[in-house]
Amino acid sequence: MIHNIRSRAEALEAQLISDRRDIHKYAESGWLEFRTASRVARRLSDLGYAVAAGREVLKEKARIGLPSPKMLAACWERALAQGGDPTWMEAMRGGFTGVVGTLKCGAGPVLGMRFDIDALDLTESLDASHRPAREGFASVNEGVMHACGHDGHVAVGLGVAQILAALKPRLRGEVRLIFQPAEEGVRGARAMVEAGVVEGVDYLVGHHLYNERPLDEIVSGLDNYPATTKFDAYLTGEAAHAGANPQAGRNALLAAATAAVNLHALPRHRCGETRINVGRLEAGSGRNVIPANARLVIETRGTNTELDAEMYAAAVRVLEASAAMYNCTLEIVAMGAAQSASSSDELARQVKRVAQALGGIHPVEHGESGDCEDFTYMMRRVQAQGGQATNIAVGAHGVGGPQHSTMFDFDEGALKTATMLLSAVAADVMYEA
Amino acid sequence: MIHNIRSRAEALEAQLISDRRDIHKYAESGWLEFRTASRVARRLSDLGYAVAAGREVLKEKARIGLPSPKMLAACWERALAQGGDPTWMEAMRGGFTGVVGTLKCGAGPVLGMRFDIDALDLTESLDASHRPAREGFASVNEGVMHACGHDGHVAVGLGVAQILAALKPRLRGEVRLIFQPAEEGVRGARAMVEAGVVEGVDYLVGHHLYNERPLDEIVSGLDNYPATTKFDAYLTGEAAHAGANPQAGRNALLAAATAAVNLHALPRHRCGETRINVGRLEAGSGRNVIPANARLVIETRGTNTELDAEMYAAAVRVLEASAAMYNCTLEIVAMGAAQSASSSDELARQVKRVAQALGGIHPVEHGESGDCEDFTYMMRRVQAQGGQATNIAVGAHGVGGPQHSTMFDFDEGALKTATMLLSAVAADVMYEA
Amino acid sequence: MIHNIRSRAEALEAQLISDRRDIHKYAESGWLEFRTASRVARRLSDLGYAVAAGREVLKEKARIGLPSPKMLAACWERALAQGGDPTWMEAMRGGFTGVVGTLKCGAGPVLGMRFDIDALDLTESLDASHRPAREGFASVNEGVMHACGHDGHVAVGLGVAQILAALKPRLRGEVRLIFQPAEEGVRGARAMVEAGVVEGVDYLVGHHLYNERPLDEIVSGLDNYPATTKFDAYLTGEAAHAGANPQAGRNALLAAATAAVNLHALPRHRCGETRINVGRLEAGSGRNVIPANARLVIETRGTNTELDAEMYAAAVRVLEASAAMYNCTLEIVAMGAAQSASSSDELARQVKRVAQALGGIHPVEHGESGDCEDFTYMMRRVQAQGGQATNIAVGAHGVGGPQHSTMFDFDEGALKTATMLLSAVAADVMYEA
Amino acid sequence: MIHNIRSRAEALEAQLISDRRDIHKYAESGWLEFRTASRVARRLSDLGYAVAAGREVLKEKARIGLPSPKMLAACWERALAQGGDPTWMEAMRGGFTGVVGTLKCGAGPVLGMRFDIDALDLTESLDASHRPAREGFASVNEGVMHACGHDGHVAVGLGVAQILAALKPRLRGEVRLIFQPAEEGVRGARAMVEAGVVEGVDYLVGHHLYNERPLDEIVSGLDNYPATTKFDAYLTGEAAHAGANPQAGRNALLAAATAAVNLHALPRHRCGETRINVGRLEAGSGRNVIPANARLVIETRGTNTELDAEMYAAAVRVLEASAAMYNCTLEIVAMGAAQSASSSDELARQVKRVAQALGGIHPVEHGESGDCEDFTYMMRRVQAQGGQATNIAVGAHGVGGPQHSTMFDFDEGALKTATMLLSAVAADVMYEA
Lengths: 433, 433, 433, 433
Fold this sequence. Notes:
The structure is a homotetramer. Chain A is of the alpha/beta class. Chain A has 13 helices and 14 strands. The first copy, chain A, has helices at about 1-10, 15-25, 35-45, 70-80, 85-90, 130-135, 150-165, 190-195, 250-265, 305-325, 345-360, 375-385, 415-430, and strands spanning about 50-55, 100-105, 110-115, 175-180, 205-210, 215-220, 220-225, 225-235, 275-285, 295-300, 330-340, 360-365, 365-370, 390-395. In chain A, the strands form three sheets. Chain A has an eight-stranded mixed beta sheet with strand order 1-2-4-3-5-14-6-12. In chain A, strands 9-10-8-11 form a four-stranded antiparallel beta sheet. In chain A, strands 7-13 form a two-stranded parallel sheet. The radius of gyration of chain A is 23 Å and the shape is globular. Chain A starts with a helix and ends with a helix. Strand 9 (about 275-285) of chain A pairs antiparallel with strand 9 (about 275-285) of chain B, so a sheet runs across the interface.
């Protein structure tokens, strides 16, 4: 079956590239992927998958870091104008842009595969040296750009869907293709987990294109994802004329400044690395007005979820005290979260074996994650329920600027490799199990 | 001659109102008064005044709080399109929007009269209860509004110019009508003083419409103007990834936060009231980036110029140390300044006598200034060279919202009173002296 | 009667000086004046006064700023050894060192006179140029010194007691001679007020020797005493090894440091002068231990009691928030308090008239208080119940160092003047009223 | 020869215990070990060693954390009274309490062995459950106690000296026995290194008794000593009356408070663990005085010398800026320092082999250091000049309280083990090399 999968993936290569370029051109950022998600839903449905979307796959209260209602409405309209599927878009109004396609193949193991679909808030370079610009698929949506490779992930997900649909008669068990919104800012995974999308999953596989690795290299299990909590703190005091009536104000700027310094003074921890950063502080209005408002944009990190949670709790304590000190009120808004996690050894080894069997791929068994990723919510849930989970790095030999830069691009040859590998892993799991 | 002046002012009333409404409709904020100033210059010239404008009356280096070059250029074009005088506007390019009209009447005292001409950055209410909106002279320039009465001051200045031109044969000495830009933010007066516009002035008279006072009341000398210094502080550090490389950053946000709290901790002073306010703080960019930039919007105040200067010097010390603490660089940009001053007793009494002689006006001899005013630069210079100076409040019985609000309006009857009073004071000074 | 009083005071001069020197030699600081107070009680009793002392004249819970129980016990023993009166000392155990002597002379007004009796924690100079050292009456109690003139106040109180006892047949009404402990640190007056010692008082007179004024000058009414609150804040966190276990500590030092800066950042007030000072901060133990303890020594001030109360309330808020920020507990211990007050005009004028009648004295009717004084608690209580109160400055032409310095001394001629003036005021009030 | 050494060590056991108890009873803390060092010098001299002491073995300027001159003088006198050797004490006046004994045995390798000799500032428990108290050898010097085992190190050093002197005919090369003062607070080693005591050393061996390890266990090489810098910062401003003249002060307390919070806010480092602690802060004097003085007691740490040096440099920057912010001067006084270091693999293996050959000892090859140690200065210097160095842990099965506690004690059986092991290592090095 392995040989079969290689040729199927090769046959799909033009479609993978075309899909990726379509998604790239109509880039949509987190919770606003109305066009992307609705077209994915239609394609999965056309391929014979049972498709769930919208509130079925995203728990409303667990979503974090949403854009304004105005932005949600405007981008929904834009998506419609840019070719979103009107039927599927209905369920997605208000930012419910997740999709899960299920293929049931009788008794057997449940395999989940996750593909993240959102772009970044970044204006793409139009320089001639930047291929998307040169070849006409640069983002038409100003200020939004796929600069992290999720456009490729979507294309791979659709390719895997097509191959597995074709192989259905030879598979046992169930495959769930999970298309997740809002990975940037680590905002979307938790709401899918809480809606139950990985309930009963025995094997969970994710992947990410890695520009720093050569085209033919994969890492079958990424480890040591750090945990992080991202949140904004709003302080509200009371304005007053700074010259005539200074004692009448309640100074939100000084509350924020006191918080900022003392947040950075939170102690180091004996059990591992921790981090805190106030990345942004905006406070006040006029020069001669006691500032009535302030916002702090904050994140904590830890080498594990417990350390991050301790940092977050301590940060909240500092913020509450700073607010109290200046008689201000405090509101904290969750903006993102990821947990610590590592890939399951056994599944990583299985992926490595499959890669070796496919040939032409140099598999590395384990690697360091580098940075936070909210797929960790899904990994930990599956591992907690007795299953196995892994996140795979697929070398994509960067051809443009670094990740999250306006010149980011990758070698589209990686799309075939990823599609082939993931399909083969699925076949391996669902055939042998 | 007094009676004569009353009837002349009454005859001008329609023109005063029409001028005020024209200026109101084409409101221009500080250093951008190209239309206003150029039309004033033309009118003065037409009336026979020797007119100086632009760099002749504004020392370039002494101007503070200027808009961006882009804004200066755009508003120059707008002024041209809205009826600015192209000839006079030439000299005003780049924000040289001051005008001085001189009428020489032979040997005798030199009298200066100052009129401030700028509007505020505020979007005018279009509510039907707001007369300018109802009667069609609300500002057509979005985000700019005469909400402090300077539109009236311009009209009064032109009225006084007309009356004095007519009386010229009966006057001795010299009158200088000084039209000053950028009083809001206390930015413009110093540059006129340093260009020499009050050199040799024996008597200096200013006025301001006061909505809190009834229509027929004037204060012949306002006192105890507090001193103030307005400035922005820019801190520049270095960005770094807050998770991966925190030690590599130079944190401008923490430098700014440390500065803010310690600026407010500057000690009180045995010799009088002082104030300091950080009205605004903006720092940082991304949540996971060590902030590389910060801006603080600051003002100091003191019951006299020396106290304000001590506060400013101490504030600079705190800012420099905060920058050094976080290895940041610091740039301080002057944004405004006013000095402490009080009206000269003798001149205030003379104004009061003139008001009594005119009849129908209830003069109060002295009153508290309330807030800062950069006319103080001119007052102190004239007093320092042995002359007398006064600033007069003219009751204008506010009919809309308070000063600096989007519903601000005043009783236009005050225009006639002010024109009459200032003309009569001029006649009194130049006849008797 | 006036002439009579002058000669009586002159006859007492040697005793006044001898009494002052005895008190000076056995200086006792606040709440520890066992010898001083007990000998005063015996003298008043011998002169025929009804004497109350101890808990009768000091409300236990209202006493503030007490020394440790160990110190109280040790100084009680020292006082006994140095000639304290054992009978009266019994009631004073534990720091109840106030005395009130009452002389009832039939129906008539009630006059209170207050004398403060405590020394300072200061080691007296033994330099030969310092008269107390040279002439053998320097303090024998190391670390305690009368450097504010209260030794003189005690002597004057005893002199007045003797003169009024002699004049009793010619007086009407009631005189209460109030000897108050612990004026330094403004700690004692409130506890006497709350014990009722000025209940029913119609006229209240205090005095203070002023070295900055010439010997023959008095101020009949001191005004504008500022209000103050003096308190210590104790923060308690938890120690931990700073290298091995930094996150386990709760850092009281950082809580205190945050409090200190933010206390000084409390805003100025439109209604008058305010002050705050953290005069002392002690925190921590070993270099490598997260500090578990901190103490801040603080005072607030205001030009009136309300402003001081606002500052104190704001300071408590800052301290509570700082403690909460670092998970510490906070205890605030009251250490002293004085209210704002001014002398009653009518009584000040009466004192001036009496001074003029006595001759040889240059009376000034009103003067600025300069600094805080807890006699204000008594003044305000008497004024609130419809009576009159004044505090008198008596010129004492300083002959040594300034107040509160180790070389402080005054011209003992002032003792006679003060005794004469206060006796004459009493006679005037109780004869005429 | 090994068997020979075991029996020699066993024969010395009573002397080892007696020496340890003598040193324990007359405990002396860092730079004050006049009795201890002078008696060591005499013993080494008596055994035939060439002895250097005082300034010969301690570079004056490199000593840090010295007691006051008064304390140095007083403890010198105490040492004389308690049996110090008057001849050797002469060279040690002023805190030059190091001793080096050299035994030259012809051509061959140079072996250094280091023994630290100081006690702690701690008052020893007199509880009957504490053996030193029960058996009469508790410290007679109040406030000073051997609570870290250095008393044992001295005894072991003298035992090794005796055994090697006896073996001299069979040895080649040179042995230097280095008795180092002031290890507590990591103050003494650097001054010995800078005086040249490890110049030319090929093999350097240290040891420390470890109560947490069983009696018969040794670790032949301790690794990963963290680096640390210990220092005090003195801020000097200017006092002023906080009520009357607040602007006249230069507030050292606020400078110190600002420094404290911002020191703790120094960022974490990507390359390893760092620490900073302000362990103590003392500032100010009177409640109503702007504080003119402050002291901060600080330490930095890092997993290597470079990280610690970065933290120290950043801390100095924060302190300098805090001083500048409040117009204060800053003085930084070095109080201690240790470097990062690890034992040399080859030498650690050699020690392990010797231990195995001796029998009855369970050797562990490598172990974690746990905490800072200034022997690292010597280790790094020897390693830098091409030699090998190791620090050995000798299990001493704690019988009382933990290290640095008032109940600390150890099993004296460890003295024999340590003496035997070190002597055998010396024999091995000097025989085989």
